[in-house]
Amino acid sequence: MKAGAAFSADWLALREPFDAAARAASAPLLQALRARAPASGPWRVMDLGCGTGANLRWLAPRLGGAQQWLVIDHDESLLARWDHQPGFAPSDAGRLRWQGAGFSAEVLRRQTDLARGFAALPWAAAQLVTASALLDLVGEAWLRALVAHASGARATLFFALSVDGRHAWSPRDPHDAAVDTLFAAHQRRDKGLGPALGAQAVPMLARLLRERGYRVRLARSDWRVAAPHDPDGALQRALIEGLARAAQEQDPAQAPLVRGWRERRLAQVARGRLRVGHLDLLAWPAR
């Protein structure tokens, strides 16, 4: 993605344990994914918008065997953090190596703008194209280009943790729906990859892939934000602040309503619960 959709390393670290817990719910997709393993040689994986590497850290041990990852992000500072990840060791030609029980991953980092540099990526070499928490940021043209490149390479696709628009709060607030509507409109702004599809990204990708002869499977991977998983309420507070900020930017005239919602939500963090809807998508060529 472009710099306009940058995410801080602190935010990525805050969400990683919730991402990992949520992805456990879509574990049945993994069995189908592992069945697509290459008959010989390592998995060749391309990770789009890789950030600090949470997707690789979750997926590589579960894929198993030898793997070659090309990890791509526009943010050089996030890519530099991979040097300090526990267990990652320098390899040849600037690569990193990460290995554990039953797997060994060779990692090549590339700084690339996913708007301007997308077509030039080495699609023909990719057997698996993956990303985490990326799809809702992209537009239709970008999604169509992804399908064209990936299907041309007959690559498998595994996209995790794409929001589907569901926010289930407990206890409820009379203005939850109003804030959600404003946030959803803000989410569809252009993040650098075209007018963002938000919650419609996964249904559109599934349709486009089926039109190309792909088999598609979906599974829920919802965040469950509450104690004991969020003991100090850090993620819940971050989400409340983010939703309120986006809602006010979307319609400043609604600022009094949003401020009241934010104050009530923050006051309820200790006993509040939130379920954020996500979908994981796995797709592979039918023939």
UniProtKB/TrEMBL annotation:
GO terms for molecular function: methyltransferase activity. It comes from the Bacteria. Keywords: Methyltransferase, Transferase. This is Class I SAM-dependent methyltransferase. It comes from Hydrogenophaga crocea. The keyword Methyltransferase applies. The keyword Methyltransferase applies. GO terms for biological process: methylation.
